[in-house]
Amino acid sequence: MRVLGIDPGSRLTGFGVIDSDSTGTHYVAAGTVRTTAKEFTERLKEVFVGMSKIINEYAPHEIAIERVFLARNPDSAIKLGQARGAALSATFASSASIHEYSAREVKQAVVGSGAAQKTQVQRMVRVMLGIKSTEPLGADAADALAIALCHAHGRVLRARLAHVTGAHP
Known about the structure:
5 strands; Nucleotidyltransferase, domain 5
């Protein structure tokens, strides 16, 4: 099962691709879609185009994206929501299912604490996926990988629970 994690942003949108199977979870790729346009609508277009290319290249089966949180600055929250919408729109042409997670859920799944710091998330992502400290891994890419890991591990747990209870995952 190939999972694409997305950490949306209007300047940097992180992406992380992992494969999850019976032998574990394996790192495939990670990076960021960097926008360069001055106009906000053009940056949204860059997010859409960049994510479309990533989805076409890696062909994920499932996509996990971070939910927008309520920021202190309403303008920032709106812009983040729009960037998230641009990233999500790029996923609609694929047949991948889409799943959403809060930042707290992701941190809890990867670090064990919903209040974990970005550096803790980055370190745990490296450990969980065997990414060497010499390999570049920016905070946005690490967050996207953490979102993908949260989904993949939750998927395994949901499947086990369904098997035990006879319910659908």
